[in-house]
Structure to design on (533 residues):
């Protein structure tokens, strides 16, 4: 006899009768009225109900996968990354076919067992834009992105980051959407720092960094399932404490795009050594001149060079594409400032306008000067931020007090940013300080030499606040106030007068009177001053 199929109604009434039998008969009529709201199906019945009444399958929405052509992806990357055209083309092409594969699998719900996932190695000097390239790519593809520094990584089970934690982080970066997390991108930066250690360390599995961590990368880069919960992952712990059911969740790395990156300092020497050996020691191409570093570029890189550098063969074997990046010279850094959306110069201009309403812009020559100075740092694009903040810090601090609506940062401002800034702020600050002395301010002028004198004192840090300096000067040097109170003539404050004030000698009073061309009557000063007040 066929077994009777259990339905939702069977479970519902069985549960209801159990509750009813446990309660006094007097309230049974009320239970009848409330049963549709009162009775709930226990979680233990859920599997039974799922089998009894299958939920109609809903069509999956995979619209979040942005399937753009490689050309369109590269075109969008051009708005954010200057130069590196070969790297952008390679990343655009690889990511396009990878996302097309993912979308086909999700829509057909059929796994292509023959698909070989691509893994990429970006090699380039610090500041050449490796992280920016990958981060920009993830935004264009609309997939979650996690960056982990290889220098902070350890093998699973040791204190520190692990590649498994990076995979888990994709889940939380995608708002706990497992499908999106499994389409994400993980960038392992500074992977060249894992080249330390010995072959014996790797074989014995005894080290927590170097070759041991390289081995840890192998399975996730191909296909593995990683438990979402980890006792060392802070997000896992938080979700568990909030009552989340993550015990049985696993995240698959099958379609996660792994991108490795590193500067690989000295790799050219490894390439040169190999090329010399293959061409007959020091014999150059065609048996002519010996090979030198000028004959070497990253385009000559081969997998055996990476192994010689210190990467384990198994990891090198999983790298499908090696993409070299160019060093950013002054011209490219200039175009980064001028043409890139969200460049540091544009951020500063926008931030100033939004917070103060003032329009401050960088001239073209100023951008070139900043680029030239940044290039001398030999840290690539990162130096642009450092240079811009250094030259603008004092200016931005005083900007709200400056009485102008528009200002253009010129090249001479970049080279002499402190003198230019202090020259801008000294005169307005003198005017503000004089407001504290309304009885005499209208009779006092400050000549150019006095303004330059205070500017120099700001530069050598002997004056910190212009307002305080002027206040102390006006409060301490009564001869000026005497003359104004007695004669009501205009007084010009000169560099010489300020210099005497700073020397603070006994003879200064007499010399100051001489400079003012008048010796006031001290006996009348207090009466007149009190009368003015």
């Amino acid at each position: 006899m066929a077994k009777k199929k259990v339905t939702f109604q069977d479970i519902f009434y069985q549960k209801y009768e159990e509750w009813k039998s446990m309660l006094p008969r007097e309230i049974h009529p009320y239970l009848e009225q409330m049963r549709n709201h009162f009775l709930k199906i226990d979680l233990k019945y859920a599997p039974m109900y799922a089998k009894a009444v299958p939920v109609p399958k809903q069509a999956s929405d995979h619209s979040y996968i942005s399937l753009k052509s490689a050309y369109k992806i590269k075109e969008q990357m051009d708005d954010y990354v200057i130069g590196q055209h070969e790297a952008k083309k390679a990343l655009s092409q690889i990511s396009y076919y990878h996302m097309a594969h993912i979308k086909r699998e999700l829509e057909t719900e059929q796994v292509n067992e023959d698909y070989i996932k691509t893994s990429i190695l970006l090699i380039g000097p610090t500041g050449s834009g490796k992280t920016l390239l990958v981060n920009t790519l993830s935004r264009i593809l609309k997939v979650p992105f996690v960056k982990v520094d290889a220098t902070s990584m350890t093998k699973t089970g040791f204190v520190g980051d692990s590649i498994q934690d990076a995979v888990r982080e994709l889940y939380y970066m995608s708002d706990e959407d497992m499908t999106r997390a499994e389409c994400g991108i993980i960038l392992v930066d500074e992977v060249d720092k894992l080249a330390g250690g010995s072959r014996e360390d790797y074989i014995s599995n005894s080290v927590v960094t170097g070759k041991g961590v390289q081995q840890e990368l192998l399975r996730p880069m191909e296909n593995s399932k990683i438990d979402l919960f980890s006792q060392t992952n802070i997000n896992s712990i938080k979700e568990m404490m909030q009552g989340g059911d993550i015990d049985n969740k696993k995240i698959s790395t099958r379609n996660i795009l792994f991108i490795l990156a590193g500067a690989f300092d000295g790799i050219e020497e490894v390439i040169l050594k190999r090329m010399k050996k293959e061409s007959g020691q020091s014999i150059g191409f065609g048996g002519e001149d010996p090979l030198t570093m000028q004959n070497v570029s990253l385009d000559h890189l081969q997998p055996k060079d990476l192994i010689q550098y210190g990467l384990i063969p198994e990891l090198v074997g999983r790298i499908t594409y090696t993409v070299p990046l160019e060093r950013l010279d002054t011209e490219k850094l200039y175009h980064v400032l001028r043409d890139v959306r969200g460049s540091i110069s544009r951020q500063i201009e926008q931030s100033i306008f939004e917070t103060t309403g003032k329009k401050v812009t960088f001239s073209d020559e100023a951008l070139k000067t900043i680029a030239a100075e940044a290039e001398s740092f030999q840290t690539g694009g990162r130096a642009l931020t450092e240079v811009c903040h250094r030259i603008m810090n004092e200016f931005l601090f005083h900007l709200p007090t400056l009485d102008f609506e528009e200002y253009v940062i010129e090249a001479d401002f970049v080279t002499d940013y402190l003198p230019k800034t202090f020259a801008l702020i000294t005169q307005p600050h003198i005017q503000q300080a004089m407001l504290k002395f309304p009885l005499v301010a209208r009779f006092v002028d400050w000549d150019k030499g006095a303004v330059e004198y205070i500017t120099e004192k700001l530069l050598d840090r002997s004056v910190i606040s212009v307002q305080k300096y002027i206040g102390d000067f006006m409060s301490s040097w009564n001869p000026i106030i005497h003359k104004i109170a007695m004669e009501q003539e205009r007084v010009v404050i000169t560099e010489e007068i300020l210099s005497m004030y700073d020397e603070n000698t006994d003879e200064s009073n007499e010399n100051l009177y001489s400079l003012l061309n008048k010796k006031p009557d001290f006996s009348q000063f207090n009466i007149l001053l009190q009368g003015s007040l």
